[in-house]
Amino acid sequence: MELSVTELRELVAALGQSDLVELTLKSTDFELTLRKSAAMLAGTAAATAVVKPDDTMVVSATEPLPTSTPAAPVTPPPGKGSNLVSVNSPMVGTFYRSPAPEEPPFVGVGDRISTGQTVCIIEAMKLMNELEAEVSGEIVEILVENSQPVEFGQTLMLVRPA
Question: Are 138 and 127 contacting, i.e. CB atoms less than 8 angstroms apart?
């Protein structure tokens, strides 16, 4: 039995919207257990994935995984200026500034960006999700170090719109 990323997302979404606390799928190739965490049961946003040594994957999430990963502009952190736009993480994962360790970063402070341009990658559950700019402008600040874990909604960069 093969399970695509889309099917996995649908399973996570179905679990999040149901009264079920745990769902296990077993085949000759793998075992997948989806389990609501205590945070999820309490209504707090949380998403984690663990692959055990026996290749069992445990996924807990409070909401469906996003099907796309656009960077959403929101109000910047206090004291940073009201004319700046935040680039926020659309998911829990690991922040990467470049497509590979030996490659140059997608963007740096002072760089001009345009709408739709890739600004970073968030790795979640071994999937690389490119974040695209939703505004054109100049990168004013990068608030996250390369390879650092990030939370859902965490501000990654500040952009001065063009």
Answer: no
